[in-house]
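Continued from yesterday's entry.
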Amino acid sequence: MVKQRNDEALLLSDEILRNFELSELPSQNILLKCLRLARLLNDFEGVEWLRQEVNGFDSDSEGLLTPAAWAATEKSGRRYFIDDPDSKAQNPKPKKVEQAFTQSIAAMEASVSSGRARMDVAFDRNVSLSSISQFAAPQGNAAERSGIQQQIQTSIERIEKVKARLYQYVLNLNYELSFSELTEDIFSRMRLSVDTALKDIYPEAVQKFISVYENLKSDDDENWANAVLTCRRIIKEVADSLFPPLAEPIEVSGKLIKVGEDQYINRLIQYIESKSSCGKIKSDVGSYLKFISETLDNVHEAANKGAHTEVTLQEAERYIIYTYLVIGDVLSL
């Protein structure tokens, strides 16, 4: 379901960017599509911002913008500074106060269109010089045209400011969604490779990984901790399959190394040593293996002591990815 929504959001973001770049739709229509994009991604802050842009900025009983509306004007680039009228009379360098223009994009675009129509008729008509009285020279429309042109220019500048913020918002989401899809494809290929290899040496691992994913769907941090503990069990049982525990230590480079039931990392490292002739690969995989095992062991020890293990969802997801990576490295040797 999440992937389906993300796929739809990626297609929609591509479409919106094209709409912006090719001026295919009125800005108000594009704005509505931006709002849908935010809803698809459950970007609640973005939804509130874009809702204010679509429906108008909320104000309180005194006519002042609400905090949410004021925050939305910042995201839209609608803020500007003017001289404080209260301090201007007493101070040659008056303080600056921040304000925001709140006209909708649709209203500003309508203002531009009407301004251009007025410009078409605000021209100086031809007058016969012989009919001009020396006391009653006709007044031209230069001042009117200047005012209309200034109004048009101001509206266009404001529209472009808001559109630039909207475009950047959609562009950022597009990059994130594209990268997420690429990362997911890479991880999916790696996961398929690991799952296929695991079926040969430890078929139950695939089912255990499924239980890990189920735990991640929970809102309970204890289930997230359980997912991490399951990862530890998977790594240990992979070690049991590749290098079963031995009662007696083994000698490596003149040192005795314990490879019993609890020394599953030592056993995996010895398996790596036996399978790879490249010193750098053995060092890299070994270091990575020790890092993830220490973290998983800490969670395991805390759980055995009855202590509440605080594991965030982000940490649990990261440990699961680490588990896949390290098992994939070991099985690829």
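--- second protein ---
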Amino acid sequence: MLEQILSKSQELIALYGLKVVAALLILFIGRLAAHIVRKVIHNVMARTKVDTTLISFVTSLSYIALMAFVVIAALGQLGIQTASFIAILGAAGLAVGLALQGSLSNFAAGVLMIVFKPFKVGEFIEAGGASGTVEIIEIFTTTLKSPDNKIIIIPNSKVSGGNIINHSAEPTRLVDLQVVFNYKDDIAKIEGLLQEILDSDERILKAPAPAIGVAKLTETSVGIAVRPWVKTADYNAVAGQILKKIKELFDNKKVLPPLG
């Protein structure tokens, strides 16, 4: 009896021993190779200055895919039929893909935004039907903070699916205001007073030079455009200050109140 057990054990070891050793080697070498590939991908993407969020996601995804291939190869070495296993994984992947169709579109949009960078954290944008300062750009969503301190979380597919207006991309901005006056007012004199207001504010840039001129005529009024250039960071403060100075300057004159 003992001899039969020993004989059977030797047969099993002879039959499966090398396969088990080969499978373990495949797992060991495959895992080492997956680590190396992940490190290479990380270094290449880091050198090209890709966003760290995308680097982390791509390297993790590549590692998981390689390890799945290694495990399947090891199971095949043991003589386990992997065709049905691969088919099950494929079917599961298709089902998950259909279930997460919206999330996948958000993911694709997030990758494109991270790669092409239409805006950055800290910039003020209008996108996806909302406006605010960019707080976080993630793979699936973008978070904005509105001027009244509300947090707005927008799916990336909505952000990239429409127009994106980036108010902070350029270092300077044009303050485009319009002031309304009566036909009886001396337009030349008014333009001179408006120029004095602009000249008194050091935040207004000398180049490009501010533009002041008639922009619109109606049956009862004349619209004069006031268009100075300022640094982007000064835009809101300067626009409000200009309107305030115009109001104070013309308070005692017979003109219509300024509109901005």
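The longest helix spans residues 2-47. Residues 119 and 166 are 7 Å apart (CA to CA). Will compare against the first tomorrow.
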